[in-house]
Amino acid sequence: MLADKCFSDLKAPITRVGLPHVPMPFSAGLVEHIIPNEQQVIDAVRRVMA
Fold it and tell me: pTM for this one?
């Protein structure tokens, strides 16, 4: 939605933080490693704001 309404106002490219392109594991321990955590979101925001 942001890209549709405000694309010309953006000063940095849109960054997505999401799951990598791998199959979803069945093990709960492995799921925790592929779902983005708080630090990954913060790092993505800082990269865009730099």
Answer: 0.60
